[in-house]
């Protein structure tokens, strides 16, 4: 589990002191403590658990072991010690918080089930066709992934980077039945509308992510998703960049972060899991011809 999947704030809310007033708006000074470190910073007034986690990751991301579970605690003056962050806590005053690793080391297993999975298709647009390495191959692989998602009833979220200037998703990609097709200017796919769509999917745990560019939109999306406690699977043969160097170094970096870098065939067969699955024959037909290697086996 990712560090941002820190234990949810407990139900009891008492003893949330340890702060001094900081006014009713703007930013609030907060001391962020982790291990032997203590770094003063600030967050917007009214920030909650998620924003505190994001701030911890921005301050200490290079020290945090993403395979461990954490709990956030608040220093309470009345107890003269740290307490678990109260449920519904919002920063309204100057305060001190810390991120505490639990003792259990968590391993990312990468198990997939259709009921807890969503597909993210990132910026597979017409204007990128001449620039992206092996774009024809990743279009082909992306299309078989979306066909598999439809067969298995898995929600699909699609973004398009500034479609007014860069065009819509390529015609070869069939977006029939997609839960959301959304324009964006931000590089990451994690927009408010996407977060709202994820909240509507009960029990979502895993995101299958593919598209362009690996070192920009894919990388930033993946890091934001694991920061929210989701498990991310990047489909290497359906993901590319303008530069093979950028593509391969991004995949290597993401794998070291605990993100699962895999292939389209592995994803589709893992989702059916059994030849007795009612959709196995149809999924088998999708992968009967091996997916193109999209430059993954070529010399960089």
UniProtKB/TrEMBL annotation:
Q: Which Gene3D superfamilies match?
A: Isochorismatase-like
- Give the UniProt family note: Belongs to the isochorismatase family.
The family database entries (InterPro entries) matched by this protein are listed as: Isochorismatase-like_dom, Isochorismatase-like_sf, Isochorismatase_domain
Pfam family of the protein (one): Isochorismatase
Output the SUPFAM superfamilies linked to this UniProt entry. Answer: Isochorismatase-like hydrolases (SSF52499)
Tell me the protein's name: Isochorismatase domain-containing protein 1
Q: Which residues form a coiled coil?
A: none
Domain Isochorismatase-like: start-end pairs: 117-265
Q: Which organism is it from?
A: Apteryx mantelli
């Amino acid at each position: 589990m990712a560090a941002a999947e820190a234990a949810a704030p407990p139900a009891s809310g008492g003893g949330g002191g340890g702060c001094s007033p900081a006014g009713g708006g703007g930013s609030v000074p907060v001391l962020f403590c982790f291990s032997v470190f203590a770094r003063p910073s600030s967050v917007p007034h009214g920030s909650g658990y998620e924003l505190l986690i994001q701030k911890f990751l921005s301050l200490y991301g290079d020290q945090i072991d993403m395979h461990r579970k954490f709990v956030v605690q608040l220093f309470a003056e009345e107890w003269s010690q740290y307490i678990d962050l109260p449920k519904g806590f919002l920063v309204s005053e100057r305060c001190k918080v810390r991120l505490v690793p639990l003792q259990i080391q968590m391993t990312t297993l990468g198990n997939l089930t259709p009921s807890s999975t969503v597909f993210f298709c990132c910026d597979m647009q017409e204007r990128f066709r001449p620039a992206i390495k092996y774009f024809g191959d990743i279009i082909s692989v992306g299309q078989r992934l979306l066909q598999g998602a439809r067969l298995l009833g898995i929600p699909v979220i699609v973004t398009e980077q500034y479609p007014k200037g860069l065009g819509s998703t390529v015609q070869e990609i069939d977006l029939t039945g997609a839960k959301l097709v959304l324009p964006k200017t931000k590089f990451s796919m994690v927009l408010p509308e996407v977060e709202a769509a994820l909240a509507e999917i009960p029990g979502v745990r895993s995101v299958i992510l593919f598209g362009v560019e690996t070192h920009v939109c894919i990388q930033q999306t993946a890091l934001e998703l694991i920061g929210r406690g989701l498990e991310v699977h990047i489909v290497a043969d359906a993901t590319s960049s303008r530069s093979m160097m950028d593509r391969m170094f991004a995949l290597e970096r993401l794998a070291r972060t605990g993100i699962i870098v895999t292939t389209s065939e592995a994803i589709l067969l893992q989702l059916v899991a059994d030849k007795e699955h009612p959709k196995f024959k149809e999924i088998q037909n999708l992968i009967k011809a091996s997916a193109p290697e999209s430059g993954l086996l070529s010399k960089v």
